[in-house]
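Quick illustration, no need to memorize.
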Amino acid sequence: MSNESQEPHPSQLDLLLAQYAGGTMTSRELSCATGLAFGEILVELGKRNLALPRVSAERTPAQDSLLERALRDGE
């Protein structure tokens, strides 16, 4: 682990990784809480058969407008 002074208890690490996998914690929050680098987070997720969280960002009205203009201009 990158920062041994921040290493959580194994059951705490399991909980934090599950929260990250569930999308209720960011990778930055997990890294700060555990001292793990992103690559180490991936390894730990894999050891527990946990998937990366899925992010489905919603577009803003400005993004929709830009997309519509780009599609219209291409016609």
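The mean pLDDT is 87.
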